[in-house]
Amino acid sequence: MNPRTVHCACPHDCPDTCAIRVTVEDGVAARVQGDPDHPPTNGALCTKVARYTERVYHPERLLHPLKRSGPKGSGRFERVGWNEALADIAARLQSIASRDPRAILPYSYAGTMGLVQGESIAARFFHRIGASLLDRTICANAGGTALAATYGKKVGMLAENFRDSRLILIWGSNSIASNLHFWTIAQAAKRAGAKLVCIDPRRTETAEKCHEHLALLPGTDGALALALMHELIENDWLDHDYLERHTDGWPELRAEALAWDPARAAAVCGLEADQIRSLARDYATIRPAAIRLNYGMQRVRGGGSAVRLVAALPCLTGAWRDPAGGLLLSAGGWAPVRRAALERPDLLPTGPRRVINMSTIGDALTAPSSADFGPAVEAVIVYNSNPIAVAPDSGKVVAGFAREDLFTVVLEQFQTDTADFADYVLPATTQLEHFDVHSSYGHHYLLVNEPAIAPLGEARPNTAVFRDLAARLGFTEPCFAETDEEIGASAFEGIDFAELRRVGWVRIPVPAAPFSDGGFPTPNGRAQFAPADLGVATYVPPYESRQSAPELAARYPLAMISPPARHFLNSSFVNVTSLRSIEGEPLIEMHPSDAAARGLSDGVVVRAYNDRGEYRCRLAVTDRARPGVVVGLGVWWRKFGVAGTNANEVTGQALTDIGRGATFYDCLVEVAAA
Question: Which residues of the chain fall short of a pLDDT of 50?
Fold first, then answer.
């Protein structure tokens, strides 16, 4: 058979959403390559997805339905047929729903970013049955909510225009690891004379290659943003015309900023006041100036407020007037996605509804029935996620999933930590084996993913599983009979679907300088600094820090952040042998001064601990970590850990100030020899 090439798209939770060409020979995916004709990604793939065939053809791929045959968590299962598995699952769900459907909970997130295999038939199914609603906030909701509160939607400048910026602030992003194509653009700008500044508690690979690195303490980004505003005001480095014509709430924000001189902010952030003054001067005087903000900095108590403050900065200087000025956190709001058509919220019953936050799943699964909470959760259906590895306070998460009376179904490609606790594990297709469509939050293109190969073994797409369950439960609405291609065709407003499938992608029309003359997608077209429901943004300190919780810090004096390891993406790819061999093993990074104070040496096994739990792994003594901060690189599967845990053993379930997001990086610990 002659080789053929198939248009695919990366499904993973990264801003870039790469276009992919898959070469198929005799029904086998022989090569996975970036598509050089796709403008934003230009043929380049990250190390992870470049090895995607290792994932598809992994010897441990789940290829048949499995039923638990041992204790929960043992990972002992026996093979069963699809008919037996689905019949039993449908009967169990129907029995629970007959008492109270809110006792059923879906749990899913960004294991695929696809609009078809994500929340289409699955959402329709859970809406129709009346299950509890899942508040999907674990990654980016604080920042996304904050951006929308300021600009009206999750919108920003065009990524490609950073090429012409003369100053780029890379704020809360390890772009080399998580935003490869932006980093390529930033490097081109650097070669053309641009200055690059990284703002991050850790000296990441990105920080090493920038001209300057501000290693602030976790959770203090809002104080830094206010101090920058203070300097802009004091030196009159403001675009008064832009503020007057295109913003609301400037007097309130101005008053807040004037209370934050560089000395005050420096004491909070763990920086030198002159670093803040210098950065403010550069931001005001080097034009065009652009900010690449990412979601790492919003995983703390005040993360939403901090994003609101940073998002205001380009309005103060009028940076938006230039195509190469402004800010990019997410471009997702430009995509004309028809969420209601995909998810069909009209199918929801009229009775009482319950919303459970995915970041507090540990509490939810261990909560008894009560008037406030409602019925105890009796069944969890997990797809596109691995909550035992990725959710905070994982000791509680494990306790919840270990309940013998909890019926758990997991749709998965591999035997993850969560799959070990399932009653049924159903084999899921990979991206090369199903149809999907994608938007992106890093660029302005929509993509299609055509199936390149037939599903391996008995693997089925998510959509097929939920269609079958809907039929077994007697759901006769026509939306449950739609094919994947029909769902994909209805996913976007005003897009030529035939052209999308022919080319592989289409560009969303966005102006080169979208807010050069205002026109933000708010009700009045003006950026909002003090909306009525939120008021003016201010610095909100972490739940756990020396300043906000001194008694706690006396026992647990080190702030811990847990960003993803470079060759993993959350808990995806951890079991790909070649990538895991590059990462080596779970590590905690600690600054030499902190290690010396504890008598710890490089390479020893340590325990990071607090009142929530204990995480054991090997210590890396390095100045990548700043004094007072340790870095627990994740998200490793627990089963690969020294003691069967990962960094989320010590993270907490408290939520962000706005957006109900997780606060992974708002965490105090102590570290000692194991």
Answer: none
